[in-house]
Amino acid sequence: MLIIPAIDIQNGCVVRLVQGKLDRRQYSNDPVRTARHWVRQGAKFLHIVDLDGAITGAPKNLDFVKEIARIQGIKIQFGGGVRKMETIKMLLDCGISRVILSTKAIEDRKFLEEAFKKFKDKVIVSVDAIANQVFTSGWQDKSSSLQAYGFAKVLKDMGFAQMIYTDISKDGTLKGPDIKGINLLLKTGLQIIYSGGISSLDDIIRIKVLEKQGVAGIIIGKALYEGKFSLSAAIKTANQ
Length: 240
Hints:
Oligomer: single chain
Number of helices: 11
Low-confidence stretches: none
Distance between the termini: 10 Å
Shape: globular
Mean pLDDT: 92
CATH architecture: Alpha-Beta Barrel
Number of domains: 1
Structural class: alpha/beta
CATH superfamily: Aldolase class I
Strand content: 25-35%
Number of strands: 12
Helix content: 25-40%
CATH class: Alpha Beta
Strand order of the largest sheet: 1-4-5-6-7-10-11-12
């Protein structure tokens, strides 16, 4: 099971938000240095989100992302404002391993179908929700009556093998993962990469129990930045 450090970039700095709120805590003014740090600690995959892009609808911190993509021995999934086919292609051409789709994919089914047809497993959809209710636009907007479980079934039927699931109510809170939500989404047959609320190695163990059911990875942000445990300890726990 993959342990994936999160690097959220806003105005060129590495930050963490709480439940998507725009008040933030800054951890670094050098995203590239942060990426190199996680690689030295054993990361094999990074989760990078352009928060400015998620809110405005177009990536704003691409220079940092392109430089991170040149680091040897690391794969990157990147999202935040990816709402055009040409943006997906540009990111993949720059060395991004997998492009994260969210708002545009949720709001425009034709775009989602075209992106999957053209790029297959080079794109992955992030479904971000509170109590099964999907949110978009950097978690600023509720997506009408769209439910996470129902949309996950759409992804499965379309041919996707994996999705990213974030419980917004847990994100940045260090209050533990949404096991109930993970179990619900696993019923679709999709593999789940989970994000939100991880606070301890015990939380990783709780999710690892679901690995055989289809949990493929855990994205961890605040707990690593706050030193709740080391990345190496997290990786060891996930692979015991």
